[in-house]
Amino acid sequence: MDGGAPEPGAVNPSVNPSVNMADVARLAGVSIATVSRALRDVPGVSQPTRDRVRDIARELSYVISPEASALSRGHTGRVAVVVPRLEAWFYGAMLGAMAPVLRAADLDMLVYETEGEQERTRFLRELPARRKADAVLLTALPLSQTEVARLDLMGAHVVVAGGTVRDFPHVAVDDLAAGRTAVRHLLDLGHRRVAMLRTNDTDGAVWSADVQRTEAWRTTLRDAGLDASDELLASESYGVDAGARGLARLLALPEPPTAVFAYSDELAFSAIAHARRVGLRVPEDLSVIGVDGHPLGETLGTTTVDQHVTDQGRLAAELVVGLLAGGTVADVEVPATLVVRDTTAPPAH
Amino acid sequence: MDGGAPEPGAVNPSVNPSVNMADVARLAGVSIATVSRALRDVPGVSQPTRDRVRDIARELSYVISPEASALSRGHTGRVAVVVPRLEAWFYGAMLGAMAPVLRAADLDMLVYETEGEQERTRFLRELPARRKADAVLLTALPLSQTEVARLDLMGAHVVVAGGTVRDFPHVAVDDLAAGRTAVRHLLDLGHRRVAMLRTNDTDGAVWSADVQRTEAWRTTLRDAGLDASDELLASESYGVDAGARGLARLLALPEPPTAVFAYSDELAFSAIAHARRVGLRVPEDLSVIGVDGHPLGETLGTTTVDQHVTDQGRLAAELVVGLLAGGTVADVEVPATLVVRDTTAPPAH
DNA sequence: ACGAACCATGAAAACGTTTGCATGGGCCAC
DNA sequence: GTGGCCCATGCAAACGTTTTCATGGTTCGT
Known about the structure:
homodimer; alpha/beta; 434 Repressor (Amino-terminal Domain); Rossmann fold; 3 domains; six-stranded parallel sheet; six-stranded mixed sheet; 13 helices; 12 strands; about 15% strand; DNA-binding
């Protein structure tokens, strides 16, 4: 409906009353179509014309309207990344690894933080990501059964990073193997009483990594004929001091553990600090191993099972980019590697 | 140009061939305009009609096209947050604090990571944020003079968090005061040889926090008649072990410091770990104070000057929301508070 | 030289909303 | 009973692109 002469009274005065393609076209003495083609490097424009259009566009510091472009082409050029908790190191590392990949593919990164089941549910119910992004990157998200069921309402591509959700393409470590590696390391050192430290989300959500690492702890101990009873499994609510709280409970046991397998490095840090505060030497009196590959673990000398978060993030982003380019999907399994440092040693006896 | 009969051969088959307003309108037996009004809670629709439209929309699981909506109304409903390095705790904390505020205001968060001057320059040159978001939130970004000059090309609102850039509205701590507080704490304990540990970005960018904390260190020492020469200022390139490297250099001095003021908590952690590794007791043989209020500092017992990053992020986001609501601007100064823990003590003598 | 193929260009439909303006019906006050 | 208002609704223009299709001018092979 813009074939006629431009009406004087524009209905929607743009917030940014800047130049549009028509302005560039007018100054370049060409049609809007040619400007569009010239600026996007699509064939069908002679080099001189292309150059002239480019120059004029630059001169006017013209910027294309992403909305109009997206509306017309049918996709947004954006990827939504959903995380449960932005301030945790894990998610920052993930985002940091994804960012360069997406940027290289000219995709913008929309970040959604959904804290707790309520928000996640609301998020999924309102389908806000749908049509706001071409793909959704679910990052190690705890999801309840209902939430999982609801997920396919979105028409967009879905990729999961750092976990598994239904049959969506994913990038993850084998958490069962990671857990076994950690616990076996402790057993190999000679420990016979090995506790586990984890945090539980208050809502009844299922976090695949959590379930599997806990399962690994239990079965590895049982397979070795050792005790893996619930008193040795300390579950605390999330917080900076969760590790300290959990360890305190474990140390109060009639027969306290000589080694602790912490769900995450942050938990391990907190536990180690607590142990030292109450006079225990680590690793002489207590061995602690975490999971993650947190950079501070290197500084602090913490033994850990590195799950190469940066690789996971990068690979997940690459998966998304491939998917959007029309490629095919293939799940990626990232290996978890044991990094022995200074917080594990044979038990004292 | 949709006044005529709908042509059979649609030009742009949408990626997501889902329902649009016209479908809802048809089924509800009303016009598109009424649907638009009904769904957005704007007056001018009777309650029965509104309800019917809502029901039908839900039934069809209709989702509005953000592109079309944005194109028509003239703004995007998005805020761009620009950070230099996503994996650092500081930025995760900032994003985590901003997210709930923006979400509450129905604004989506677009995150741009610009690593190094090259990328920042490219970012500013291509003005990608312009028109992709209604506002830009610059988070503690080191910027060179040229970059700063270029910034006003963007028509969007700009707010700065965790620093100061030109005369843009900002939320920040008084870094001069924060630095003075830290150094004075060391002086008050009796230290007379106080070093500073910082990281330098390789590019010639100016990071206001860095400049001011360094300046505070220098002047506070000089005012007390103490040495603040460059040999006591250890500048290392960014990395997990930057603190260790810096401290190693300081300890190699003919007259090593008895106390260290670290630019950030992460630097302090690394320095403390290094000190202990080489046999120095902290705080008995060496005092270390950082800046930030890193959550792990609580775990590790690190003395710090808390700059309340979470508050800064939240306030900056609130500033943006206010600005977009047509409000007025007012810079916010967040107080930096000394948190004495276990890594500072009087010198040994 | 002459038709064929090609290339650069432009016209205009389509993407899916929002909103100013016009319209018509119902209701109230006098 | 009638004129004036207000309210619910619809029409259609506008937002700024992308892309299909048509057109006219070159160029090349023979």
